Amino acid sequence: MVRIAVDLNRCQGYAQCAFLAPEIFTMHGEEALLYAPEADEAHRAKLAQAAAACPVQAILVDAVDVPAGAVSDAR
Amino acid sequence: MLGDGSLERLKREGRIVVVGASLAGLRAAETLRAEGFAGSLTLIGDEPHEPYDRPPLSKQVLLGRAAADRTALPRLRSVDATWRLGVPATGLDMAAGRVRLADDDEVPYDRLLIATGVRARAWPREAEAELDGVFVLRTRDDSAALARRLEEGPKRVLVIGAGFTGSEIASACRERGLAVTVAERGAAPLVGALGGVVGAVAAEMQREHGVDLRCGVMVTALEGDASGRVRAAHLSDGSTVETDVVIVSLGAIRNTEWLAGSGLGAGPRGIACDAGCRAFDIRGIVTDDIYAAGDVARSPHPLFGYQFLSLEHWGNAASQARIAAHNMISESTDRIPHMEVPAFWSSQFGVNIKSVGVPSLGTEVLISQGALRDHRFIGVYGYQGRVIGAVAFDQARWLPFYQELIETTAAFPPPFPTVDRCSDGQRPLDADFPDPSVPTHGPTVTLGGYSPADRRMTFTPAH
Ligand SMILES: Cc1cc2nc3c(=O)[nH]c(=O)nc-3n(C[C@H](O)[C@H](O)[C@H](O)COP(=O)(O)OP(=O)(O)OC[C@H]3O[C@@H](n4cnc5c(N)ncnc54)[C@H](O)[C@@H]3O)c2cc1C
Ligand code: SF4
């Protein structure tokens, strides 16, 4: 599982990501981008490609594998 | 901290506590570790969830394209920290340098970052707010509950308040084929953020998409049936809307109550901090060890005459948090000011809306590109002869240009001839913002004057 956020302030709606990883990024109307906030492991490579292709580097993805339970209440 | 090695000691073995474990809290924690902070780091959050992203909650989630519990924020680097989730901070002892938690524990700090954000303003009549079918939308849990109810195919959804969130909710419901009524006290949707000229376009978009939009009215009461489910809403014009889902979208309240009596300059308008994110105490003196970032902060902005600005914007939370984190562990000469031009996006009814600067400070608006009637245009806002903000409807690509005009305090109206300026754009119009003394619930940018102490502020509920 890979987590995704897009900085839509930066995004210029050129849709490169939607061409490269249509499972994750789709255009909604003419220039609004809708993305899946979480993608399957199987899409990791495509996602990395899309993030690299974004001309304004708006796509943020997990840089590290956060093992389940890495966030827990440490009381 | 001048060359006596105390900063090095702080970075090596200090204790940094972050209260509020959302966008600002997470980005600050990542920055602290990225910049070499090796001491102990504790994140305290009252929500039981790891940091998640809120913008999808009113968009992808309500459209049924993502699950509310699958919106966790990506981690930009690994963060070694102690997470205290599901426990609210309940008090601050500035003299002792301790944060008190609801479970009576106390967490000592050398540096504290406050990033407790805002919460949704609830429906003011408590018994009505508790009716089954009445929702607000701020958290992951709110969004999950609402999405579940929309799944059941309610006969009608009533959205109270047409700010950005309310409008996005209405849009998602219409896209799912649900009947929607929107009740807005102002003259148009988004009027507090963008003014009446652009608000009229937002109204047209809603009506074209089949929203039963009622402006200039207030909801006076919600009515439940015998089983405690909401069944109708009564409006100030005497009409009644039969509905089984009501979403209260009346703006936000800053989470500062836990700081009451602490001596920090915190109140209903947020926490006042300087351009370097250091919080003020109530005497107007800046603290050395307490910082604020994100939706809860208000800070002076050089582009806007150093007035305090509160911004409920994703980009602001992320960048202010990074700056706060950097400054917490830097010598004063290495600190950086937070002076990014405010920026915001929303998408609704298939239109991409983006703004830069502070449109709500504008008195005039010029449609410099495109046309209002096409719902595809750029509006430039002017204040005292300079460009102060801009909004784009499906014209996002041009915004960086306008941002530069704002940054360079360019003259308004801008003298340049634009490529596709049409009849709308021959002269500036009155931007038509509501009277500032009338509280609106949707500006998302609040100008807070010059006083850091926030003591004369009286709280006026929006409804
Ligand atoms: C539905 C929705 C849609 C949005 N869409 C957009 C958009 O399209 N574009 C945009 O720019 N912005 C959007 N925003 C705004 C954006 O999400 C916020 O600006 C951002 O979340 C602010 O982050 P923050 O960390 O400052 O505060 P928050 O995200 O509010 O986080 C504060 C955290 O602190 C916790 N907390 C509060 N009090 C305490 C306490 N006493 N002790 C411990 N923890 C506490 C809160 O529970 C919360 O988890 C949207 C917001 C919502 C709700
Ligand atoms: S590639 Fe980048 S700029 Fe283009 S639509 Fe995707 S996120 Fe936006």
Let me know the average pLDDT of chain B. Answer: 93
CATH class of chain A: Alpha Beta
Strand percent estimate of chain B:
25-35%
Give the class of chain A from helix and strand content and strand pairing. Answer: alpha+beta
What's the overall geometry of chain A?
globular
Strand tally of chain A is 5
Side by side, the strands of the main sheet of chain B go 3-2-1-7-21-20
Number of helices of chain B: 8
- Stretches of chain A where pLDDT falls below 50 for ≥5 residues? none
CATH class value of the largest domain in chain B: Alpha Beta
The first-to-last residue Cα distance of chain B is 49 Å
What is the topology, as strand order, of the major beta sheet of chain A?
4-1-5
- Output the CATH homologous superfamily of the largest domain in chain B: FAD/NAD(P)-binding domain
Classify the fold: give the CATH topology of the largest domain in chain B: FAD/NAD(P)-binding domain
Order of helices and strands of chain A: EHEEEHE
Alpha-beta content class of chain B: alpha/beta
Integer-rounded radius of gyration of chain B:
22 Å
Protein name (chain B): FAD-dependent oxidoreductase
Cofactor (chain B): FAD
Keywords (chain B): FAD, Flavoprotein, Oxidoreductase
Domain FAD/NAD(P)-binding (chain B): 15-321
Give an overview in words.
The complex is a heterodimer of chains A (75) and B (463). Chain A has helices spanning 16-20, 44-53; strands spanning 2-6, 25-28, 32-35, 38-39, 59-61. Chain A is an alpha+beta fold and 75 residues long. Chain A has one domain: Alpha-Beta Plaits, CATH 3.30.70. In chain A, the strands form 2 sheets. A 3-stranded antiparallel β-sheet of chain A has the order 4-1-5, with helices on one face. Chain A has a two-stranded antiparallel ribbon with strand order 2-3. Chain B has helices at residues 6-13, 23-34, 126-129, 140-151, 164-175, 191-208, 314-328, 399-407, and strands at residues 15-19, 40-45, 82-85, 89-93, 98-101, 106-108, 111-114, 118-120, 134-135, 157-160, 180-184, 212-215, 219-224, 230-235, 240-242, 245-248, 252-254, 266-267, 270-272, 278-280, 286-292, 297-301, 307-311, 343-348, 351-357, 364-371, 376-383, 386-393, 429-430, 445-447. In chain B, strand 14 and strand 15 (240-242) form a beta hairpin. In chain B, helix 2 (23-34) packs parallel to helix 7 (314-328). The chains are: A alpha+beta (75), B alpha/beta (463). At the A-B interface, strand 1 and strand 3 of A face strand 3, helix 7, strand 24 and strand 25 of B. Bound molecules: flavin-adenine dinucleotide and iron/sulfur cluster. Flavin-adenine dinucleotide binds next to helix 2, strand 2, helix 7 and strand 24 of chain B. Chain A: Ferredoxins are iron-sulfur proteins that transfer electrons in a wide variety of metabolic reactions. Chain A: Its cofactor is [3Fe-4S] cluster. Chain A: This is Ferredoxin. Chain A: Keywords: 3Fe-4S, Electron transport, Iron, Iron-sulfur, Metal-binding, Transport.
